[in-house]
Design brief:
With about 500 residues, this protein is mainly α. The protein folds into 2 domains: about 15-110 and about 125-230, Growth Hormone, Chain: A (Up-down Bundle); about 240-490, MFS general substrate transporter like domains (Growth Hormone, Chain: A, Up-down Bundle). Helices cover about 70% and strands about 5% of the residues. It contains 20 helices and 4 strands. The strands form 2 sheets. Strands 1-2 form a two-stranded antiparallel ribbon. α3 (about 70-80) crosses α4 and α3 crosses α5. It starts with 17 loop residues before the first helix and ends in a 6-residue tail after the last helix.
């Protein structure tokens, strides 16, 4: 098929080529699939697949972190084979990957008529035994990881190619709206699917969304013009090595990774924390939507507010806010001791203290993100060597790479210590946990959960450490820059 070239400079307003709208529609489907799966992934790997909390941390952390590293390289492939072929390949992989992920946790019904001494008791049993189940999950996540890494550079590249300087800001605002709508939809659908049908069906829903995107792209997407020399794989690897070896730049990346380590607990810790303390009827998937709602509402006014604030000061405020957000969640224990299991916010509106403090904590995370996002790129660009800003900005996602991996790994250990999988409890404690999380509850949570809120103390400490590291970074780099700016003696 013929290429659809980039629009001419006179294009303005809401006039975009069809490919632009198709790409954004596909992005909406893809984000609905991804966030529906992601919000339940850690819980799914433990509750349905049988990984321990610790192993779930490593598996989910490796998946999410590498997903942020691969686009640098899959984008090179997309340039060579064309955006349309790349998107068809990506969505085909995502459809297969999500379906495999759901298949691994699929349960089948066993009725009383078919049971015997050698078969399971009546109820639902997993279709696959433990080792095949876990192998299928690893393969599925690898397929999703590769497919998802193709989407990121191709969709954003399409948006850029289908806009010009006059309307690019509006084009990307539409793109980010599609991302947020997809995110909100995916997490909203995940809760009823988990409660009413089964946890594994969230992944089948994700496969359906990916299939819809595949059909949309195959039928209506037309290639944009990507003519040019492009980047070679060797150059991308050399650039990555160069960036990683720059201690000044990497120090800032690791400091900000502290922020995202706390933010990513929405996916690493929060779902398990809520379901283990409040029971299966709770909807942590819906609580997670507080974050994008706050960002959408406040990012524009906050960006305007901090337009004249020094970048490092805005980042520092973001780190303090994210620290407070984790500490606020930890206070649910204090609030519960003061109010019992219900906090009256208004006539007819009562929330459990854990639910209330998580909402407050997630809202603060969203606010913190509004202070970080508009200033981080500005500050980081100043740390790049002269003439190499573009190269270094291309690797900003390394902060999420580190944050996802370490955030999930730390989460796995903390959950295992302070908020353990109920299936690992002694029979008496498990029975007590079932009674405590019933609706209505008929017992207190067993002693194994008495220190569950300690998890958020640890993440508060990580936030404080990141803030202190930023202050030290600012002091050291300012001193170095001042000395470099001074003329040499006798000059």
């Amino acid at each position: 098929m013929g290429n659809e070239t980039s629009p001419q400079p006179q294009r303005s307003g809401w006039s975009y080529p069809r490919t632009f709208w198709i790409a954004n529609g596909a992005e909406l489907f893809e984000r609905a699939a991804y966030y529906g799966m992601a919000i339940a992934l850690a819980y799914y790997l433990t509750d349905q697949i049988g990984f321990s909390d610790v192993w779930t941390g490593y598996v989910a952390g490796a998946f999410a972190s590498v997903l942020y590293l691969l686009p640098t390289f899959t984008g090179i492939m997309a340039d060579r084979i064309g955006f349309r072929r790349a998107l068809i390949l990506a969505f085909a992989l995502l459809t297969v990957g999500y379906a495999l992920l759901g298949l691994a946790g699929l349960t089948v019904s066993v009725n009383a008529a078919t049971t015997s001494a050698s078969t399971p008791a009546p109820g639902k049993v997993l279709l696959f035994s433990e080792i095949p189940r876990k192998l299928i999950v690893i393969v599925a996540l690898a397929v999703i990881m590769f497919g998802g890494s193709i989407i990121k550079p191709v969709i954003s590249g399409t948006v850029a190619k289908c806009s010009d300087e006059a309307n690019r800001a509006r084009a990307f605002s539409i793109f980010y709206a599609a991302v947020n709508i997809g995110s909100f939809t995916g997490k909203s659908v995940a809760a009823p699917l988990r409660i009413e049908i089964g946890l594994e069906y969230i992944n089948f829903y994700a496969a359906l969304m990916a299939l819809c995107a595949l059909l949309l792209v195959a039928a209506l997407y037309r290639d944009v013009d990507v003519a040019g020399p492009g980047k070679r794989l060797e150059a991308a690897l050399a650039g990555l090595i160069k960036v990683v070896c720059n201690l000044r730049f990497m120090a800032l990346i690791l400091i900000v990774a502290g922020f995202w380590t706390i933010q990513h607990q929405l996916y690493a810790s929060m779902t398990k924390y809520v379901l283990r303390l409040l029971g299966q009827q709770a909807k942590p998937e819906w609580l997670a939507n507080v974050n994008p709602a706050v960002v959408v509402l406040l990012v524009v006014p906050v960006t305007h507010l901090v337009r004249r604030v020094r970048a490092e000061n805005s980042i520092a405020l973001a780190l303090l806010l994210i620290t407070v957000s984790a500490f606020a969640i930890s206070l649910s224990k204090v609030v519960q001791m003061a109010t019992g299991n219900s906090v009256a916010l208004a006539p007819g509106l009562h929330l459990h203290p854990i639910t209330l403090m998580i909402i407050i904590g997630i809202a603060l995370q969203g606010l913190a993100e509004c202070f970080l996002s508009p200033k981080f790129l500005e500050y980081a660009s100043k740390q790049a060597p002269p003439g190499e800003t573009g190269l270094y900005m291309g690797y900003m996602h390394l902060s999420s790479f580190f944050a996802y991996f370490f955030g999930f790994v730390i989460s796995g250990y903390l959950l295992d210590w302070y908020c353990p999988d109920p299936n690992t409890l002694a029979p008496e404690s498990y029975a007590q946990w079932q009674a405590a999380t019933a609706s209505p509850p008929t017992a207190e949570l067993p002693v194994e959960y008495a220190r569950a809120h300690y998890i958020w103390y640890v993440f508060s400490a990580i936030g404080l450490a990141a803030f202190a590291a930023l202050m030290l970074f600012k002091l050291v780099t300012t001193t170095i820059d001042r000395r470099r700016a001074q003329p040499l003696p006798g000059v």
